[in-house]
């Protein structure tokens, strides 16, 4: 899996929605999927970043992407309903959903957590991902083989001091994935998690400001796992939480 190499145009004719697509892992996943022939829908809160990714894809000769500016912290169920309806109208189906967007908040003892920060983290990292997945289900069912990927974390598998609401949100994501995966069973939809591990991103830098970033994996290094789970080569994989880096 960590050395997975997809066939050329492995995602040809697939339509894939990526949240948090403006930078970091989401940006690289969008570029990777587009390079493999997918039409990507770029969702994020900063339009200028989405436009930059759009330009990169077009300049590389990829299929024309779509841009959806949306701040998950303030998104409503009507926003998600409208998005699903637009995807169905424009594309007729949805083959993949990468729930990549997330916020870290502030690290520290749970005893001292800020209530408003806690609520924001849970809204973006858990509630928004549950909502967008729920409302995408009708268009995911129109795909012959649809993949939903949630983003996990090592601190969402084993509790670690000072990771607070972020860790709690990732435990919730793991549980949500497992519950949903057990419900879809042997349907056309499969649902899994990826734990990116320590990666050279802005979020990682804010959590470990003194760390030597040059020693970390890049988002590009993780893409074999992201590509594997989105390709039809993983159509029998369901309910798994995979590590994008070898331990």
From TrEMBL:
<dbReference type="InterPro" id="IPR036291">
    <property type="entry name" value="NAD(P)-bd_dom_sf"/>
</dbReference>
<dbReference type="GO" id="GO:0016491">
    <property type="term" value="F:oxidoreductase activity"/>
</dbReference>
<dbReference type="Pfam" id="PF00106">
    <property type="entry name" value="adh_short"/>
</dbReference>
<dbReference type="InterPro" id="IPR020904">
    <property type="entry name" value="Sc_DH/Rdtase_CS"/>
</dbReference>
<comment type="similarity">
    <text>Belongs to the short-chain dehydrogenases/reductases (SDR) family.</text>
</comment>
<protein>
    <submittedName>
        <fullName>YciK family oxidoreductase</fullName>
    </submittedName>
</protein>
<keyword id="KW-0560">Oxidoreductase</keyword>
<dbReference type="InterPro" id="IPR002347">
    <property type="entry name" value="SDR_fam"/>
</dbReference>
């Amino acid at each position: 899996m960590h050395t997975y190499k997809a066939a050329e145009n492995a995602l040809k004719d697939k339509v894939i929605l990526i949240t948090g697509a403006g930078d970091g892992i989401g940006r690289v996943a969008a570029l990777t999927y587009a390079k493999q022939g997918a039409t990507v829908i770029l969702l994020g809160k900063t339009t200028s970043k989405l436009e930059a990714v759009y330009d990169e894809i077009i300049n590389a000769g990829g299929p024309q992407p779509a841009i959806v500016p949306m701040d998950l912290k303030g998104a409503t169920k009507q926003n998600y309903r409208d998005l699903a309806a637009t995807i169905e109208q424009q594309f007729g189906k949805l083959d993949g959903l990468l729930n990549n967007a997330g916020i870290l908040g502030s690290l520290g003892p749970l005893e001292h957590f800020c209530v408003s920060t806690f609520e924001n983290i849970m809204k973006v990292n858990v509630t928004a991902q549950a909502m967008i997945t729920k409302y995408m289900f009708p268009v995911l069912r129109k795909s012959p083989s649809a993949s939903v990927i949630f983003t996990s974390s090592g601190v969402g598998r084993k509790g670690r001091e000072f990771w607070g609401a972020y860790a709690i949100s990732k435990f919730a994501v793991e549980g949500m994935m497992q519950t949903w995966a057990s419900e879809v069973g042997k349907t056309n939809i499969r649902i899994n998690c990826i734990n990116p591990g320590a990666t050279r991103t802005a979020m990682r830098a804010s959590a470990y400001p003194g760390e030597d970033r040059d020693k970390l994996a890049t988002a590009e290094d993780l893409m074999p796992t992201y590509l594997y789970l989105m390709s039809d080569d993983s159509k029998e994989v369901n309910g798994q939480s995979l590590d994008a880096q070898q331990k």
